[in-house]
Design a protein that fits this description.
By secondary structure, the protein is mostly helical. The chain is 80% helix and 0% strand. It has 21 helices and no strands.
Length: 437
């Protein structure tokens, strides 16, 4: 736990700097166009290389020193921030530059995510998987709490350039923590040594999941949940808040901070308690409650207090969902193949998200928003629920998405392979022979 905590602290500091830069650039991008599509596309472009490189990244994570992989990923992400900083300071920054940088950053994420999870497996006992997952969720949520507040203050004092300089400094902290620790590497199996060709090793992750129906069912469930989350929660939430608040940066910062506070409280509770004994309840019920109390309240809200409450409730359940999901996979997949398997898992679960981002912007700007303006086609039908005017169309999207997200989340209980994945699949340390397909 000591080595994990050192790495976790470095990643926490780096996440804070990255989130500050993201908030500052989000405000800048919306001021350039005033369109939800602009912000949705920022999310869309972040997934391209992430999805394409994930299977290959998993092979390299299993082959290489996982500490070096984490260093490589952090250095790459830091370089992207420096690039944007230079473009901004020379008055050359344009929206398309952000899209390119988001794409490249996604490529580094493809290496960072499976390396971080696989390294954690080698550092802590199985009994601590849920707790360390909760700590990772806590780090992400803490950055969400502090970043909007810090970024809002720093934007007024030192501008976007200063915020990005802070980001560079936090990235150096993360690199330093990785330089002073060591991470054990799992013993290679016979399969690892004989399957030298890259394409066979890439295919291993797909075959591994396909032959374990419980894991496959969890992947499909998360594909659906992620799609509906991307359709509103991840893509158009900032645009909706800015539109309904008259582009009030403080209101957006308050809502973003409430998201982080909800995640922090949820992450702390998971870290201390560990969550329900049956982790499937954390996943299915937790996701349904997040859509119900989050998306639906965001749709009904007309003021910062309601939006902040909705954001808190939506984010509160996310650490329960992610930590339970991650703990199941860490328990079921042998450490020596986790890089390949987790990369494929992550890729498959992310595939629907770019589609959600791609649909969100045009749906908001071209259909829902015009329909909910005064005199629009849905003003009479839905105006009583979400109001009319700027942002009301996106609010209606949240209301519709809440119903779809709840249905998707609870569908996991309908299938036995998902419902009983924890008990029906053996843990990796319960079988003596290396896990293979």
């Amino acid at each position: 736990m000591r080595t994990f905590t050192v790495i976790w602290f470095g990643q926490l500091v780096s996440l804070l700097g990255t989130a500050m830069t993201r908030f500052a650039l989000l405000i800048w991008a919306y001021e350039q166009t005033g369109k939800a599509t602009t912000l949705a596309l920022l999310g869309f472009f972040s997934f391209g290389l992430d999805i394409l490189l994930s299977p290959i990244a998993g092979v390299w994570v299993d082959r290489w020193d996982r500490r070096l992989v984490l260093l490589f990923a952090d250095l790459g992400a830091g370089l992207m921030t420096v690039t944007i900083l230079i473009l901004y300071m020379t008055n050359a920054l344009q929206i398309w530059h952000l899209y390119v940088v988001q794409t490249l950053t996604g490529g580094f994420t493809a290496f960072q995510a499976p390396a971080y999870t696989a390294a954690t497996t080698m550092l802590v006992p199985k009994s601590q998987y849920t707790r360390t997952s909760g700590m990772r969720s806590l780090a992400s949520s803490t950055s969400q709490v502090l970043a909007p507040v810090f970024a809002g203050v720093m934007l007024r004092l030192i501008g976007i350039g200063g915020v990005m300089l802070i980001d560079v400094a936090t990235f150096l902290v993360a690199v330093t923590t990785l330089l002073i620790v060591s991470i054990p590497h799992p013993t290679a199996t016979q399969k690892d040594s004989t399957e030298s060709r890259m394409w066979r090793e890439v295919g291993f992750g797909f075959h591994y999941i396909r032959h374990r129906y419980g894991l496959l069912g969890l992947v499909i469930l998360f594909m659906g949940i992620n799609f509906f989350a991307a359709l509103t929660y991840f893509s158009i939430l900032p645009a909706m808040i800015l539109a309904r608040s008259g582009r009030n940066e403080l209101t957006l910062a308050t809502v973003q901070a409430a998201l982080g506070i909800g995640g922090v409280v949820g992450g702390l509770l998971v870290s201390i308690w560990g969550g329900p004994k049956r982790r499937i309840h954390s996943i299915c019920t937790g996701a349904a409650l997040s859509f119900l109390l989050g998306d639906f309240l965001l749709a009904l809200g007309r003021n910062v207090q309601t939006w902040a409450l909705a954001a808190f409730l939506a984010a509160f359940f996310i650490p329960f969902i992610s930590s339970a999901h991650r703990a199941i996979w860490q328990a079921k997949v042998a450490p020596e193949v986790q890089g390949r398997v987790f990369s494929v898992k992550g890729m498959l679960e992310l595939v629907p998200m770019p589609l959600g981002y791609l649909l969100a912007g045009p749906l908001a700007d071209r259909w829902f928003e015009p329909a909910m303006m005064i005199g629009g086609s849905l003003e009479v039908t839905c105006g009583w629920l979400v109001g009319t005017g700027p942002g009301a169309g996106m609010a209606l999207m949240f209301a519709c998405n809440a119903i779809l997200g709840i249905t998707m989340s609870l569908s996991g209980y309908l299938f036995q392979v998902v419902r009983r994945a924890e008990s029906d699949l053996p843990d990796h340390d319960a079988v003596s022979a290396p896990q293979s397909v």
